[in-house]
Amino acid sequence: TIRKDYTAATILYTRSCQKLALQMLESVLERAVKYDFVDLAADASKLLRMQFKRESANIEKCQIYTEIHRKYEEKKYYESMAAEYYETFIEDFLVKRSPNNETSQKAINLFNKLHPFVNMVNTSAFYFYTYGILLIHLFSVNKIYEALYQCNIMLEFLEANRNTNRSVILNLITQKMACLTHLRVNDTVEINKILVLFYKYRNANDFAM
C-alpha cells in the first residue's frame, strides 16, 4: 500500500540509498496527491524538498517540492482542525442526545467558521468534517428532514470522489438510515436503495488503500 511504500522509502532514505528512496518518494507523492492522503503528501514532499535543497543544481525541483509541501501542510492544518471540532461535537451530541440549543448554536458557529475554506482545502475529509458539523447542528434542533436532505447532498458529493474512504460513506449511510427511521419512512424502494448502498461499501476495500 501507499503507506507501506512511504515507510520503505524513509528507511532507504535514512540508510543513504538516496536514488531509490527518491524514486519511491516521488511515486508516493504522486499517489498521495491523487487520493487526498494529505499527511503523506506533506511528509513525502518535505523529504523531497530537503534532498533537492542539498543539491544546488536542482533548484527548480526544490522550488516545486517546497510549494507542494507548503500547500499540503496548510491542508493538513485545516483538516486536523476540522477533525478535532467534529470529534468534539460528536461526543457532546452523543452525551446529550436530546435536542440541545447550546450544542446547535456552537455547531453552526463552527460550520460558518470552516465553510469558507471548503474550496481552498478541497479534500473529501475536510468536506465531511465541515458538513458533518452542520448535520450535528440539524440533529441538535431536531430538524430531521433537513438533516436527511443534507445527508443526500453529502453522499452524492463524496460518492463522486473516488478518493473518499468507504468508512466516511458508511458513516453517512448510517446517519441517513437514522433519519429514515426517525421519520418512519415506509418507502420500501428508498429503504432497499440505502441497504444496497450500505452493503456495497461495507463489502468493498477502502478506496486508494
Care to describe what's here?
By secondary structure, the chain is mainly alpha-helical. It is 81% helix and 0% strand. It contains 10 helices and no strands. Helix 7 packs antiparallel against helix 8.
What's the gist of this structure?
The protein is mostly helical and 209 residues long.
Describe the secondary-structure layout.
Blueprint: H1 2-14, H2 18-34, H3 38-54, H4 59-96, H5 101-114, H6 118-121, H7 124-140, H8 144-160, H9 166-182, H10 188-202
Helix pairs in contact: 1-2, 2-3, 3-4, 4-5, 4-7, 5-7, 7-8, 8-9, 9-10
Annotation keywords:
209 residues
Described by the principal axes of the CA atoms, the overall outline is: elongated
Q: What structural class do you assign from the helix and strand content?
A: mainly alpha
Largest sheet: none
Give me the strand/helix succession.
Answer: HHHHHHHHHH
Please give the count of helices. Answer: 10
Task: State the end-to-end distance.
Answer: 6 Å
Find the count of extended strands (DSSP E, 2+ residues): 0
